[in-house]
Amino acid sequence: MKALAARRHHRLAPVVLLLLALLTTGGIYAALAPSTANAETVSTADIETGKKLFQANCATCHGANAEGTDGVPSLVGVGAAAVDFQVSTGRMPMQMSGPQAQAKPRQFGDEDTAALAAYVASLGAGPAIPTDDQVDAAQGDAANGMALFRTNCAMCHNAVGAGGALSEGKFAPSLWETSERNIYQAMLTGPQSMPVFNDANITPDEKRDIVAFLVEQREGSAGGNALGSLGPVSEGLWAFAIGLGLLIGAAVWIGAKSS
Amino acid sequence: MSENQNPRTDASNEVTVAPEAGNAVVHADRFPDPGVPEHKHRLTDTDPKAAKRAERTVTLLFVLSILGTVGSIVAYVLVPPDGTTAGVRLSTLLIGLGLALSLLGIGVAGIHWAKTLMGDREFVQERHTLATQGEARETAIRDMNEGLEDSGVIGRRGVLKGAFFGALALFPLAIAVPLIGSVGGDWNISKFKHTMWQRGTRLAIDPSGRPIKAADVTVGSVFHVVPETTEEFRETHEWITEKSKAVVLMVRLNPEDLRTDQSPEGETWSHEGIVAYSKICTHVGCPVALYEQQTHHLLCPCHQSTFDIADSAKVVFGPANRRLPQLPITVDDEGYLVAQDDFAEPIGPSFWERLK
Amino acid sequence: MSTATHDTQREAPAKPTTTVGKAADYLDQRTSIGVAVKEFARKVFPDHWSFMLGEIALFSFVVLIISGFFLTMFFEPSMALTRYEGEHPASMHGELMSVAFASTLDMSFEVRGGLLMRQIHHWSALIFMASIVVHMMRVFFTGAFRKPREINWIVGLLLMILGLAAGFTGYSLPDDVLSGNGLRITDGVVKSIPLVGSFMSYMIFGGEFPGHHIVPRLFTLHIFVVPGILLALIALHLFLMVLQKHTQYPGGGRTDKNVVGYPALPVYVAKMTGNFFLVFGVLALMGATMSINNVWNYGPFDPSPVSAGAQPDWYMLFLEGSLRLMPGQGTEWVIFGYTLPLNILIPAVVVPGILFTFLFVYPFVEAKVTGDDREHHVLDRPRNKPARTGLGVAFLTAFIILALAGSNDLIATHFHLSINAITWVFRILFFVGPVFAYAITRRICLGLQRKDRELVLHGHESGRIVRFANGEYIEVHTPLDEQERWLRVNYEAPAPLEIAPKTDARGVKRKGYSSDKRWQRLSRFFYEDRVEPVTPAELEAAHSHGEHDQLEDGESGHQAVEAGAGATSREH
Prior knowledge:
Number of helices of chain B: 7
Low-confidence stretches of chain C: 1-5, 547-572
Largest interface: B-C, 108 and 133 residues
Largest sheet of chain B: 4 strands, antiparallel
Radius of gyration of chain C: 30 Å
Structural class of chain B: alpha+beta
Number of helices of chain C: 20
Number of strands of chain C: 9
Shape of chain B: extended
Helix content of chain B: 25-40%
Order of helices and strands of chain B: HHHEHHHEEHEEEEEEEE
Strand content of chain B: 5-15%
Mean pLDDT of chain B: 88
CATH superfamily of the largest domain in chain B: Rieske [2Fe-2S] iron-sulphur domain
Low-confidence stretches of chain B: 1-26
Strand content of chain C: 5-15%
CATH architecture of the largest domain in chain B: 3-layer Sandwich
Oligomer: heterotrimer
Strand order of the largest sheet of chain B: 2-3-4-5
Helix content of chain C: 55-70%
Distance between the termini of chain C: 63 Å
Number of strands of chain B: 11
Distance between the termini of chain B: 63 Å
């Protein structure tokens, strides 16, 4: 990993990386597009099940053929990754309208989700669900992930993925509970307010580095309780609540007469 | 301090005041001062057992402190941080808890000792008017006047006085001028108005430095962009300073979402819905990086200035006043995105000479 | 030990016999230290928990120096670029960074106890500023800034400002992204200053932002210049405190002419030393268990990244909030081609300017409108100075609203609110909040004063109901003992200033009349509404008025009848 990191700064590295990225993407796409990671084989039967599920649960908003309605996006060409992300995090189906769809307990099991994804993927080509290998944090370079994360992600999701505010009541969620696969899919598909980070912008390897960085953050802080990793405001709050609280308590004790 | 006419109440002759009327003048329309409340004895004053108990508690606390110190040293020796997050956390915790115990032991012991076993009778000391009184004051005034008289400049020798104050006022300049003159480097503030973007500079991805093809910028994507440059330059201070001005945020919008593909000056600075704006906020210079894909709003996480990317990055909320400067872009022969030129205006926060 | 030293002083001619005595004698023969011991050993200090707040500030400063010394052994204030060779944290391995940042990582991950000291240092800084602010509140609300302590109030304010400077310069030393963006904001604010802004920016950074001079410069300021001045001013602050003797809370036997409390030796010294260890102990506990400013989360400074929750330490939040609240539209003026960004100048220069000016001038304004030139050593109960208390709470309200506005993004995420709506609410509250806070606080103070009158005149409710032969029920009230009563009647309710008439005896218009008139108006604002303390005559009247309620068993004859607010002066 170290040697790779050093070589990454070679002048030709960008070109090599770009080539690699294109090859990997192409290769993976070619290899996996027909059979996604979670559904061993996508059969016509799956697509049929997915279609039924779609029409029962999604068509009210997204239209009978997923072509979208007023203010609701079309799903043609969003790919299996987008469906898997939205459904497996419980964001879809949406229960009520609000500034944004929020993660909640998922309503479809793995099989139904796979069927839905297969159906939507059959409507038009789009990003496929990443393989386990692509989201394996152990293979990622956390240092490079950190560099990418802070440039591309930290402004919304906070430096270590604790989440942050967007405008008008929207927010970027915390990433600590999000699965590696969902993190990868979010980058790939750009759900809701989040922009898309396609494979030319952040290559699949780089995406895995970001996943590795975020997984590393789950170890907590080296300094003790992380206090939510929210930065100076929460530190100030705790300084008053715990520090000054204890010290004023002590002062009251010092000042009180002994009985 | 030592010259007051009141008899000094020093350490040896303090009086404990019994509850009685104070020395304030009693007015007909004022209540009399009831005096210091009666002294109440503590348990430890009256009960030798309680005193013994307190003594034992204090001793125990000091022993705890010693144990804390020892524990902290043991932790230092036996639990080296192995560098991992968990290892550093454990080492920090153990050394810290030992230190805290060693300190809190002494603190609690000392205060408990003072509260239970040291004398707790309140004393009353007189205050004296702070202004110097009586003869001391007279002497001080006389000495001061005599001293001034001796200087021989009161009311005369005006030129001498002028020269004296002039010299005193001016001498710091001999230090200040070289200091201030050098502290600002070359003082060339016109650098604020230019960045390293030039005609033909390729747009590259930050932080990897890969150049970007227009075809790779899909709708809804956001790219954090820097000027393409050499690997060597990217490891210098000059790069950090240049990057501070040159960072750009680039997105591709659906052509129908883009309010106009013309700059406010009427030129075409975008390429097929791809627009690039300075990432440095026109408010106080934070990187405005928070792009909401659906609303096309760009939000600054520092002070929440919000810019509408679909509408020439005009301000829609927050403390910023000016739109973000747009980087004019186009594509080169190989399909890479390049700058048409530098920004047409200074990037970043406003300054006095900005428009000069 | 104390007695031995003491005896040496008193029986100077006699030869000391104990070891301590001999040592003291040795020292005294060479330094006449006995004079100082005589002066200070049994000096009396009043005791109250709120007098310990300043001590907390002092002791956290001592902890700052101790932990800071530790850190300087490992920190390298250099901006030279290096690649981080350390394996931990993994997210930093092989990254290009300044030596300052690398040495911060090194002292955190490789030096045993290094991270502990860093965290203790940072927590101490937060507690230092917090205790200064709370100490100032105590001084303000009890009127401890009055003559002769105005100078010490100013010294204290300077200490607070230097504390801000110390915090700011230290915060930026690790050269991380978070503090780097803080510096960038500072640069933006500095540049906005008319005429000289651009040059000042060059002066601070030795060229364009960020350059490679700023960390060594801040380091010198942080470990030498600022703490040097802080130390000198702390010494002055304490010297003045000892010289003027400490203030005391009102109570029986406590007057402006005396000081009631415990002798420095041993009680006060023991408690004070104990408190130092408590403060240090609590800070060590915080440093051991709670992480603070994990700079590796933010990474080495790079001008492109920024993270959500980009805020300064709490004591700078009011400035951050002020910048966030200011609407930007139409507030940047161009005059003869020169740019005047009021959207920065107003929140970053004018607003803090007003806040600090208020603090600096308040003691002098209050003395002037009170027409008061006496020394005060007995503190006010806050309720007895309704206008002052109201103004203080209004000030705090403004400060807190600004600090909350500086945290609006976190409020938005934690309470699921729209950040835009929050900003608008705070924009309005910043103006309305302090006015309401003033009015409500003043009302509460006046109400508490009336309650005090009530208590003095009619005593405590005992809860005992008695029925008279004629069927009338009354509740028996027990009178206040004289200590309780003294606390409630021993205050002054100054009246607004009286000024000389507009014209003198010969009908000539007096010089300075309009200025006097203005001061009188301000004085009315302060003292128009007031509640006078109960006089013995009033108490007498209340007793005789209630005579028919007197109980047979003679057990103290005070009753609750109606609220006799006879002496309440003009009320609107």
